Amino acid sequence: PFGWLDAPPGINRLLGLRRLHAWLDPAINRQFKSDMQHYAQLFWHCSLSDADYQKLVAS
């Protein structure tokens, strides 16, 4: 999604840092999907389906 780690600065950088951590640590990678779903509810005020999750991590 827009602004994982690059400009412009925004709230999605928090999730971008978690995604980067998931790439580097297999233990974090196993729980990244649930972390991202919780993040979507908290910051985007929506539920994240499996299809939506796949689209976001593929980008």
Q: How are the SSEs placed, and which strands pair?
A:
Elements: H1 12-24, H2 26-44, H3 50-58
Shape: globular
Tally of DSSP β-strands: 0
- Strand content range: under 5%
Structural class by helix and strand composition: mainly alpha
Strand count, sense and closure of the main sheet? none
Q: Domains counted in the coordinates: how many?
A: 1
* Helical content class: 55-70%
Number of helices: 3
Amino- and carboxy-terminal Cα gap: 7 Å
Radius of gyration: 11 Å
Question: How would you explain this protein's 3D organization?
Answer:
- This is Iron ABC transporter substrate-binding protein.
- It comes from Escherichia coli.
- The chain has one domain.
- Helix content is 69%, strand content 0%.
- The chain has three helices and no strands.
- The protein has 59 residues and is an all-alpha fold.
Labels describing this entry:
single chain, mainly alpha, Iron ABC transporter substrate-binding protein
Short description:
The chain contains 3 helices and no strands.
